[in-house]
């Protein structure tokens, strides 16, 4: 598929445009957070006890938290943490899962059996429980939360890539390449990998949203990002005690999580429709 | 004529969940330099397995025994690395379906350069020139445009020509064509066959042409081997085989070619192809044969030279010395 066609189809689907726009805006916000946040030093954690738990006003659009910090500024800074977590969890998980899946699928036999049983062990745990376990073992903190999530995440990618590799390695063009003496290394990287990657891209896009959500859950449970780092999950967690009287405190970070996860899901859905020729037809 | 490839007593079994599938049951054949050898038989009789055995590209559940002598050396004794150097350079293959034989994600030039640089020590630029030359040789116009196209932008016939160009890129001595025209329409079939035959004359390689189409055989092969359920039952010069079929199976095959000049009912062979998990004892054709005798059910007939260069494996023609 050529680039033009890809872009054409992407824009044909309105929801995917919405998803893409939201993600671009989020990236913009994350990159230019210091310029956009009205109170950058408060976002980083400096308390402002004179203005505790103020409702939304022209001075503080999203109100203030229990330490008087501007919630808008903290939500803006929180986008950095969330996107960092989302992208790095998925990237790390792919880095571990993709090569293992390729090897298992392409070579099959005993090596496949071993790799698949290892993934089974990981998949036997409920994902959040496993991440909790790892995070508890490694200790609290941003990096450890990322590690914990990617360690519980990679087996999904291994399974996905393995399944694709198994189907691709039987394709006639792989047979033909073998018949013409192309080396195994080249067959894996030129034929099997590029042709198995599109479902992975789709899955990864949607997973960025889920990873953000799970990281928020970890923070909520006190095992992820630690205060005073601005993080949406952490803010919801801290805000839950004030929910009844000061609802703006947990609601705005919660909304940020919701919108971000939705945007990645919309984009992932659209990518799936574009890359699956049977679904693509309805846009052409 | 010099012998190029000689398959001796080739047995191939596949281990499956349902049992051992005895696909090749002692195949013997010889291919000489510069000839077109046709291998005919119905689906599942082992034609493609024979081809894949020559290239040693059988799946990992295959058990293989016998000898495949190519230029004096047994291919079954070569290491995987040595085999990889033979594939594409000494022995090349083209497949049935040109629509799926090219990687959809890369341009033709990338795929051709890949293959050319695998077997020749030249840089990308020279490989590109060589690719252009090859495409011209297989009769494609506007080669620069084709090289810069993706496979889906070309027609089936064009893709098969590209496959042939790739297969011939290192001047192989043997080209295995596994049903090269089955997926193409009739006019393109003729063009592709003619192309293979012309290139063969020009470059002097031998062809192992696998097909189930007797018309293709009659038109293009010097000699033919007929396969049935994993055995070669008859080998002869093409003309001799069509005029003088000896094996009851070959006779049956030829009698079901419709002749538009006469309105007569075709006489189909009775019965079905046997299961290769528990094939019939003795001659595998015996349950369907009109001339079946007791010895057919006991002993597998050997391939013997009944007339000059006409081989047949059948007890009717003394398939066993002690018959």
Descriptive account of the structure:
The complex is a heterodimer of chains A (284) and B (323). With 284 residues, chain A is mostly helical. Chain A has one domain (3-283): MetI-like (MetI-like fold, Orthogonal Bundle). Chain A is 75% helix and 0% strand. In chain A, α7 packs across α8 (142-168). Chain B is α/β, with parallel strands linked by helices. In chain B, β11 (304-307) and β12 (310-312) form a beta hairpin. In chain B, α3 (108-119) crosses α4 and α6 (156-167) runs parallel beside α7 (186-203). The longest helix of chain B has 18 residues, at 186-203. The interface between A and B is medium-sized, with 19 and 29 residues.
Topology overview:
The complex is a heterodimer of chains A (284) and B (323).
Chain A: H1 3-12, H2 14-31, H3 33-36, H4 40-43, H5 71-107, H6 109-123, H7 127-138, H8 142-168, H9 172-179, H10 184-220, H11 232-239, H12 248-275, H13 277-280
Chain B: E1 3-16, E2 19-32, E3 36-40, H1 47-55, E4 62-70, E5 73-74, H2 80-86, E6 91-94, H3 108-119, H4 124-137, H5 143-147, H6 156-167, E7 174-178, H7 186-203, E8 206-211, H8 214-220, E9 223-228, E10 231-237, H9 238-243, H10 248-255, E11 304-307, E12 310-312
Parallel strand pairs in B: 3-8, 3-9, 6-7, 7-8
Antiparallel strand pairs in B: 1-2, 1-4, 4-5, 9-10, 10-12, 11-12
Helix pairs in contact in B: 3-4, 4-6, 6-7
Key terms:
heterodimer; A: 284 residues; mainly alpha; MetI-like fold; 0% strand; elongated; B: 323 residues; alpha/beta; 8-stranded mixed sheet; 4-stranded antiparallel sheet; 10 helices; 24% strand
The chain-level mean pLDDT of chain B equals 88
Quaternary structure annotation? heterodimer
Largest interface: A-B, 19 and 29 residues
Shape of chain B: globular
Brief rundown of the structure:
By secondary structure, chain A is mainly α.
